[in-house]
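Q: I have 330 residues here and want to know how they pack in 3D. Can you give me a structure?
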Amino acid sequence: MVGFAISFASVFGRMVWSTRLKLLDLLVLLVSLYILQRLSNQLSSFSAITKEFLIDGPNRNHPQMSQNSPILLSKTNRDVWMVLIDNDYVSNTIRTTGEWEPETSTYLEKHVKEGEIVIEAGANIGYYTALLGKLVGASGQVYSFEANKETYELATLTLKMNDLQPHVHLQNLAVSNRNGLVNFTYQPIASARSHYINTGGSHILTKHTKQLSHSRSVQTTTLDSALPSVTNVSWLRMDIEGAEIIAIEGAQRIIQHSPRIKIVMEWNRLYLEAFSDVNRFIDRMHQNGFQFYYLSSTEDNQHPISKEMLLSMGQTDKDLLLMRGSAEAL
């Protein structure tokens, strides 16, 4: 009888253990299926964009590229997945160092707060777009614009891969001081297969700016018309190769209704002068209460940059901070 009890207990124990193993196997299977589904969705989107840019070449006036794709994936040191372009200056910097423009990235990471509203002009491949989306969180909003159709598509995929699209809104438009059409010059992604490119150099073409290998007509918008109900903006980040001043001209309502707005813009005086009068712009911003500052991780004794110093800065590609009041108030 004792032997029977032991035997029964042994059989029962194996049944229970077997059931537990089956439940564990089922749980592992469900988790695996979930991961595979997410990966499949990402790869499907990636495949669609890869096909659009790299295989359907004749439709985009560039050679067929079904092999040796220049599109690749990488993760930044701020835990953001990026869709990058091999043989591209901006992409290669992000891939090798884990970031782009470390001084600006660190500054924004320190000062942009959860729940804030941010506008971006010049998303390029989406590095700052994704970073800002993470910083403001689901309770914040990012409104971003990119004129280059190809980099816009890659930035869109980066947002999808990081689950940022619910609160990060990206539009394929050039930002200006009027609505209309302009000639936009750029280097196609496909050309990265044969030579080094710089997607960050794409820009609105004027008689004072350099023609790149390709150009096309793009739609322009003012920020005021594109975002008619947006107010209380905390940040306006811009890197649009000299068109920053005219972008500000088209955002007067937003700036007027955003008393605490901070503007982070690339300052390249030679590029800016191709679009606008830099001297008058500085005076106008001063009249509206704005001061110019260098980006600094420590604001102790940070002083405004004088007009003379701003005008002496030539082709510097330096990001500056514009804000009302003292930078120490941040």
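Q: Anything worth noting?
A: The CA atoms of residues 238 and 244 lie 6 Å apart. The first strand starts at residue 71 and ends at 75.
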